[in-house]
Amino acid sequence: MNDKKLPLRIGVGVIVLNNENKVFVGKRKDNPVDKWQMPQGGINKNEDYLSAMKRELEEETSIRNIEVLKELDKNFEYELPKELLGIIWKGKFRGQKQRWFIVKFTGEDKEINLNTKHPEFIEWRWINFEELPNVIVDFKKKVYEELLIELREFIY
Fold it and tell me: Is there a contact between 149 and 52 (Cβ–Cβ < 8 Å)?
């Protein structure tokens, strides 16, 4: 199978900061090793980036109380490793092209509930933003390193 013929899935991601500028990460239920990621997901037909981000965030974490601080003005891409091609997203995509947002969580931690209609995370925590590249799966590491640069300029 020539994976370059498969398109990239269009998606969104969200960097959720708490009032201490720590970042929300969740442990995926389909990845039992100690890897964590920020909320992300695909865009539905006729949905804009902002609406998709808010929907995905609520679907994955139940978080609704946010203030959008910034929409990053470039897309971030990653390719799936060969062993996941044809498995993830019903084999329709070779990776993702994402638009990321930075938001401030304005609610209380008790608002966060992973027991959603289609749970994706089994556990969550707040981490220092510098830790992001160390907790993500290898094939998304480059994206997280790029996001770290954007976030560092934003926080300091």
Answer: no
CA distance 128 to 12: 21
Full pLDDT tens readout for the chain, 156 residues: 445 689 999 999 999 999 999 999 999 888 767 899 999 999 999 999 999 999 999 999 999 999 999 999 999 999 999 888 888 888 899 999 999 999 999 999 999 999 999 899 999 999 999 999 999 999 999 999 999 999 988 776
| Sign of CA pseudo-dihedral 9, 88, 29, 130 | negative
In the CATH hierarchy, which fold is given to the domain comprising 3-155? Nucleoside Triphosphate Pyrophosphohydrolase (3.90.79)
